[in-house]
């Protein structure tokens, strides 16, 4: 661990994730999704749905796409209150993250239906993200379900070993932490296979090592994972 440990305190300082294209790691798990976003604006239709499990990298890809396209980024919860005509007057593309999260919700479905129609009318593009493909979303608005069925869909698979190792190394590097190879190997064998879990585990390990003024070792990581397991089992 870099720096003078005598001067480090376990403060809850925010850690800003790196979300640029250069920070995104392309592997077989996500290369098809990357290729589709790189094709913009030459999509076969005006809508693309990107789906994959929590922590697979959808949000990172959304930010890469927004930097490339100038897209506005919304969540499904923001849809009902959004001024869609104003939004599309300033952006050629719109992203709705977690589009499946609040369905069925009448206001969200009406908002997405209105956005879909206006995007098509204006010749713009719509990128939707969710954990499952649109055919499995729990919407009840028939006209919206019909439109969602026409969207091009692309999946991101759960991260493979190569990608998870690269992500862990980068997360430690971003925090200026040096760890031995056996620490990363232990994490690959025992942690949940997701980017979200990797971020949370590295943050917890950083906090614990600062609090105890210790290097990040396998025993310390084991304690972090044990604490995470206890926390998850205690969640109703």
From TrEMBL:
Domain (Hda lid) ranges? 174-225
What GO molecular function annotations does the UniProt record carry, in alphabetical order?
DNA replication origin binding
A GO term (biological process) for this protein?
DNA replication initiation
Mention any Pfam family matching this sequence. Hda_lid
Its GO CC terms are: plasma membrane
Which PANTHER family does the annotation name? CHROMOSOMAL REPLICATION INITIATOR PROTEIN DNAA (PTHR30050), DNAA REGULATORY INACTIVATOR HDA (PTHR30050:SF5)
The protein's name is DnaA regulatory inactivator Hda
């Amino acid at each position: 661990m870099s720096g003078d440990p005598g001067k480090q305190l376990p403060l809850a300082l925010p850690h800003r994730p790196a979300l640029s294209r250069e920070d995104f790691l392309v592997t077989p798990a996500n290369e098809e999704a990357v290729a589709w976003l790189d094709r913009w604006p030459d999509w076969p239709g005006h809508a693309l749905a990107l789906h994959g499990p929590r922590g697979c990298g959808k949000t990172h890809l959304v930010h890469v796409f927004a930097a490339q396209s100038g897209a506005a980024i919304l969540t499904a919860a923001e849809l009902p209150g959004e001024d869609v005509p104003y939004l599309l007057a300033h952006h050629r593309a719109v992203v709705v993250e977690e589009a499946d999260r609040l369905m069925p919700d009448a206001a969200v479905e009406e908002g997405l239906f209105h956005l879909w129609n206006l995007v098509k009318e204006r010749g713009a593009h719509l990128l939707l993200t969710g954990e499952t493909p649109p055919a499995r979303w729990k919407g009840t608005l028939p006209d919206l379900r019909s439109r969602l069925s026409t969207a091009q869909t692309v999946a991101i698979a759960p991260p493979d070993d190569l990608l998870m190792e690269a992500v862990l190394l980068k997360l430690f590097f971003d925090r200026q932490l040096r760890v031995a190879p056996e620490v990363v190997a232990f994490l690959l064998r025992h942690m949940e296979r997701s980017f979200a879990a990797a971020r949370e585990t590295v943050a917890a390990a950083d906090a614990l090592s600062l609090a105890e003024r210790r290097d990040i070792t396998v025993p310390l990581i084991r304690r972090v994972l044990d604490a995470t397991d206890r926390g998850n089992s205690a969640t109703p």
